[in-house]
Amino acid sequence: MIGADGANSAVRKAMGVQYLSWNYDQMGVVATLHLSEATENTTAWQRFLPTGPIALLPLDATRSSLVWSTTHSHAKELLKLPEEQFVDALNDALWKQYPRRSLVDTCTSWVGGCLRRAGLADGAERQLPPCVRAVAPSSRAAFPLAFGHSTRYIAPGVALVGDAAHRVHPLAGQGVNLGFGDVKDLTDFLADAIYTGLDITHHTWLEKYESSRQRHNVPTQLAIDALYRLYSLDIAPLVLARSVGLQLTNALHPVKKMIMSHATS
Ligand SMILES: Cc1cc2nc3c(=O)[nH]c(=O)nc-3n(C[C@H](O)[C@H](O)[C@H](O)COP(=O)(O)OP(=O)(O)OC[C@H]3O[C@@H](n4cnc5c(N)ncnc54)[C@H](O)[C@@H]3O)c2cc1C
């Protein structure tokens, strides 16, 4: 049996395994958005606001998918707003200018100068996010956000995949990728079992699946949780650390490639 029944998995509960979880005290407001004009639209946008990140994920030339993580009360207000006001709130969230910290600006422009002299990207160029024209009818909804980790992904004859085994904050857009990785590894191990003529429910294959996925998923989940915490606080040293950290990650291609390769495996 494969438990692919989501974060509240009945299969996982029936397995009686330990499940570590905590709430982020945020809801994710989702919707399908129509953009003001057709563009190539191949870039995913994310902006970290004091209430949480807002992200636009490209669908096609004129449509993007919204994931707006915010407080419970704000999410409820956003769901109740008439369409036009919701679109105004959305554009405001994407474009509003917040007061900047001069210390952080001074440090990032100094780091940018050093990167430029070293022939690396200084992170100074700014691209502008798209403007939203309308929201697709009945596409607005909100979901609670939480962290979840099942300490075991397997039991005799049973394997968990996807959110049934692990749950992450959507700020890194990794939830589905982690599940796809589970499915790929599980099918690879089960195919190996079939080719060698062994019972596919034998614990050897299931344990291989569990350890390979937990080695990948648990560090990813912890990194996403750390990012959530890093962006939740508005303390000058943290703002500085994350701004310079992003600038360096963007400039150092091997680091960027390593993160991208981990995210897609
Ligand atoms: C607000 C929000 C935004 C997100 N944004 C992103 C993003 O941008 N990128 C990304 O990669 N991930 C994102 N995610 C995470 C992503 O949605 C999940 O990781 C993914 O949907 C998990 O897929 P799944 O198939 O494991 O579980 P689910 O999508 O939860 O599917 C489980 C299915 O099992 C069914 N089911 C449950 N119990 C039973 C039962 N007893 N009998 C029959 N069927 C049952 C459910 O109806 C459901 O259809 C987001 C999540 C949220 C909440």
Overview of the molecule:
There is one protein chain. This protein is α+β, with helices and mostly antiparallel strands and 265 residues long. Helix content is 46%, strand content 23%. It has helices at 10-15, 72-80, 83-95, 102-117, 175-195, 203-232, 236-251, 253-263, and strands at 2-3, 19-35, 45-49, 52-60, 63-70, 132-135, 141-150, 154-155, 158-160, 166-167. Strands 2, 3, 4, 5, 6, 7 and 10 form a 7-stranded antiparallel sheet that branches. Strands 1-9-8 form a 3-stranded mixed sheet. A hairpin with a 2-residue loop joins β8 (154-155) and β9 (158-160). α4 runs parallel beside α7 and α5 (175-195) runs antiparallel to α6 (203-232). The protein is globular and about 60 Å long. The relative contact order is 0.16. The mean pLDDT is 93. Bound molecules: flavin-adenine dinucleotide. Flavin-adenine dinucleotide binds next to β2 and α5.
Give a short overview.
This protein has 265 residues and is α+β, with helices and mostly antiparallel strands. The chain has 8 helices and 10 strands.
The number of helices is 8
What would you report as the Rg, rounded to the nearest angstrom? 21 Å
Spell out the helices and strands N to C. EHEEEEHHHEEEEEHHHH
N- to C-terminal distance: 24 Å
Which descriptor suits the 3D outline? Answer: globular
Give the ligands present.
flavin-adenine dinucleotide
Low-pLDDT residue intervals, each spanning 5 or more residues:
none
List keywords for this structure.
Ubi_Hdrlase_CS; globular; single chain; binds flavin-adenine dinucleotide; alpha+beta; (apollo) hypothetical protein
